[in-house]
Amino acid sequence: MEKKKNETGFTRTELCVVVVLIALLSALVIPRYARKYDPRRGAGHMACINNLRLIDSGKLQWALEKSKKTTDTPVDSDMQPYLGRGSNGELPYCPLDTKESFDSSYSLHNVGTHPTCKIMPDLHVLP
Asked: Which long-range contacts (CB under 8 A, 24 or more apart) does 94-97 make?
């Protein structure tokens, strides 16, 4: 059946193209949105990742200033001046840690290894 000149609207082919484009765009956008706003990875997740970044950079600064090797491991008191809270300040802890303690939240490891979260080690990981 041919389309007449005075008819308005889309042909079946045009509608199929539009549907396919919408499906492709939603397949690209929805997984990113869902991953970004995963309820298991709320604000606590990002705060913990930021703490891990802060600890990792503090370890590197400590190693540079104290001429340490990548195999050396700092202790809690070594990290205090490098975490932006002063020499007597409190060390950060994972927001999901009920004990609210640095020792129960994070493992420092040596300078050559990224710190890890003890609370949710599978989700709270440095990229």
From this structure: 94/44, 94/47, 94/48, 94/51, 94/118, 94/119, 94/120, 94/124, 95/43, 95/44, 95/47, 95/48, 96/44, 96/48, 96/120
pLDDT in tens, the chain (127 residues): 555 566 677 788 888 888 888 887 777 766 655 555 455 556 788 889 999 999 999 999 999 999 999 999 999 889 888 887 666 678 899 998 999 899 999 999 999 999 999 998 988 888 8
Burial zone of 70 (CB within 10 Å; 0-12 exposed, 13-18 middle, 19+ buried):
exposed
Q: Whole-angstrom Cα distance, residue 91 to residue 28?
A: 40
CA–CA distance, 13 with 55 (Å, rounded to integer): 57
